[in-house]
């Protein structure tokens, strides 16, 4: 019997989590296939039964996972996963998934370490949002200033070209006028 789980999973406090566990057996799946999910808290106190499956899931009548764990597997697909609802910091610890499919009843037990992390505080989200928005506004201002400066430079250059062109025309007109005055008038 081979059982496969993630080694470690992180989840946010108050959310729901699917703990995935799959198996492969050297024997065809029998009606005697059983699945046992256990929990070992971080403080290494005694194991707690989380869920037992034998032809159907049996939920716990008491304990920390009462009404918070449901079967989410599909035996025909070799999936014996569970769903944990409303995660709590006290759910930090190691979950074990053991599958027995007689006569294939020995093998490695799957283990997954769960770490429940606190939600991100509003102040941290607020700070991040303000920083991102501020950076965007600053970039828009810089781009706008650059565009305005280039526009003014272009206008100033066009004005200089216009003034230079007008001065040249005036000089040419004066030159032509002077040449007319200097040349003898023919009758």
Overall residue-averaged pLDDT value: 86
Radius of gyration: 40 Å
State which percent range the strand residues make up: 25-35%
What does the main sheet amount to? 6 strands, mixed
Class of secondary structure makeup: alpha+beta
Share of residues in helices: 25-40%
SS element count, helices: 1
Low-confidence region ranges: none
Choose one word for the global shape. rod-shaped
Strand order in the sheet with the most strands: 2-11-10-5-6-7
Number of strands: 11
Order of helices and strands: EEEEEEEEEEEH
End-to-end separation:
127 Å
Overview of this structure, please?
With 187 residues, the chain is α+β, with helices and mostly antiparallel strands. It has one helix and eleven strands. Strands 2-11-10-5-6-7 form a six-stranded mixed β-sheet, with no helix packed on it. β5 (34-41) and β6 form a beta hairpin. It is rod-shaped. It starts with a strand and ends in a 5-residue tail after the last helix. The mean pLDDT is 86.
């Amino acid at each position: 019997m081979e059982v496969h789980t993630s080694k470690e999973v992180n989840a946010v406090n108050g959310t729901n989590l699917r703990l995935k566990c799959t198996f492969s057996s050297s024997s065809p799946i029998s009606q005697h296939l059983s699945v046992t999910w256990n929990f070992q808290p971080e403080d290494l106190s005694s194991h707690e039964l989380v869920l037992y499956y034998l032809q159907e899931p049996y939920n716990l009548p008491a304990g920390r996972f009462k009404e918070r764990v449901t079967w989410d597997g599909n035996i025909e697909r070799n999936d014996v996963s569970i769903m944990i609802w409303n995660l709590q910091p006290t759910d930090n610890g190691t979950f074990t998934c053991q599958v027995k499919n007689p006569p294939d009843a020995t093998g490695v037990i799957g283990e997954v370490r769960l770490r429940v992390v606190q939600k991100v505080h509003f102040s941290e989200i607020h700070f991040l949002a303000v920083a991102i928005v501020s950076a965007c506004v600053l970039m828009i201002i810089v781009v706008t200033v650059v565009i305005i400066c280039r526009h003014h430079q272009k206008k100033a250059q066009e004005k200089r070209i216009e003034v230079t062109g007008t001065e040249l025309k005036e000089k040419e007109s004066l030159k032509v006028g002077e040449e007319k005055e200097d040349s003898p008038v023919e009758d």
